[in-house]
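Listing S7. Sequence submitted for prediction.
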Amino acid sequence: MAASINSSPVHGDRDLLGQTVMVIGGSSGIGLETARLAGAQGADIILTAREPDRLHRAGLELRASIAAFDATDFDRLVRFFDALPPPIDHLLVTGPGPCHVPPAGFDLDAARRHVDAHLLLPLQVARHAAGKIRPGGTLLFMGGVGGRRPAAGLAFVAALTAALAAMTKSLAREVAPVRVNLITAGFVDTPLSASVPGDRIDERRQQLRATLPIGRVVGPADIAALAVHLMTNTAITGATFDIDGGQQLIEG
């Protein structure tokens, strides 16, 4: 029998025992780390990702069910959810990574791909997955803190940042009693984030260690801990949680 998700807010090491956690984008980085932690707390895991080989390795590690496809192929996404037997308890949609679309040389096609990944994907997931999630369960999105402060070149990023937080609040009303929350992260030391500064990644890490109030770089395990907390704390919905080690306090 599945564990009740409408439980008290007192948490232990096996809070997710008997529950099912799905991660869209779960083959590496934040998604994989969250799946690992959820599995360690007793959850059955379902992973999706677009890269089959990496997904297969993650599935073997976690003894997870897997499905390889591009989640921004919305026809394929709908077919996946149509075939998914209910119920699941918690669903995390990981972020597609940093968004860089400066006004100078604005690429409309690239901007549309970012809208698909940052806004339309969460909407599509909410539309087609909410009926598969047990009442009181969690629909959890990932975003970024980029664009929170006005700055030249961040108009598009700022729009996406604000829109995702607003959408989370509205969806929390629309799909209740499923809970909907948003995690917005600063720099997280994942392979995807490391690819942006390229050969300057070590310099970026050192700069963050020297300047962040926490004195270290935020890692995937930090995000995973927050994600699992939001799955197990049934009093939270419609909220946005920043997790950046204090990055916004020193930058922007």
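Caption to Listing S7: primary sequence and predicted structure tokens for the chain studied. The chain has a mean pLDDT of 89. Residues 187 and 244 are 7 Å apart (CA to CA).
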